[in-house]
Amino acid sequence: MIHYDPGTWGILFAFRIKGSVFPKSLVWAAPCSVTSVILHIIIADNPAIFHQVGAGDVGASVLTGFTFILGFLVVFRSQQAYSRWWEGGTLLQQLRGEWFNAYSCLLAFCNASPEKSEEVLVFQHRLARLCSLLYFTAIQQVSTMKEKNYELLDLDDFDKDSMEYLLDAPDGCEICLQWIQRLISEADEKKILKVAPPILSRVYNQLGNGIVNLNNARKITEFPIPFPLAQMITFMLLFH
Q: I need a labelling partner for 76 at 20 to 30 A (CA). Which of 94, 176, 178, 196 fits?
């Protein structure tokens, strides 16, 4: 895959040589162009040959074909862009629904015994902050904005070394997901959660479904429109 930055106006990247198909295409296009120029000169200097060949208005035919191909490519790319945008929005909504359902289930599964009230409160606060951090890191991974400062619950009670490890990790979302899974397991062992294991396993499934949807959404930002296609469309628009 060829990584490229379209830039502010989406034009300068088209003049890049690395990854371009133009050098190879010139090997075939240059001889054809030279041959066409020679034939055009010969036919233009000999009207009899022009009528015998029956070339007609070649310029109009070439322009019509060029415009048709350009229109097809522009429509195709627009359709692909809209499909990718819609798919990304759908995946993020599914991700949010899966994780919200998992969070709400965990709140419902908390032990209602008075002697566990303090531990339950600590668990709920930590879970809320971890879920906020989980969604925060997920949005950062799929965002294309330069400033990725989104709303986040305070993390003052979290261990400093853990936060530094999270910031240095290549995939903070997976680290945060592991913390949540570990928190749920510890809460289940301490009887903070009062629920049958088969029902609790659904929470793990919902957390896993969310991370799968996130990875599917990440491909939209990590796999842009192929560079040769984007370069060709840009050049054709400039020439047109």
A: 94
Contact 140, 148 (CB under 8 A): yes
CA-based nearest residue to 152, from 171, 123, 175, 132:
132
Task: Of 214, 212, 172, 206, give the one whose Cα is nearest residue 99.
Answer: 206
> CB neighbours (10 Å) of residue 128?
14
190: pLDDT confidence band, cut at 50, 70 and 90? very high
144, amino acid identity: T
Q: Which two tokens stand for residue 232?
A: 């060709």
130 half-sphere exposure, CB direction, 13 A CA radius: 25
Q: Give the distance from CA 9 to its chain's centroid.
A: 20
Cβ atoms of residues 139 and 89 within 8 Å: no
pTM score of the predicted model: 0.75
Read off the tokens for 56: 């007609």
Alpha-carbon dihedral 21, 26, 32, 35, rounded to 10 degrees:
170
Between CA 173 and CA 60 the distance in angstroms is 56
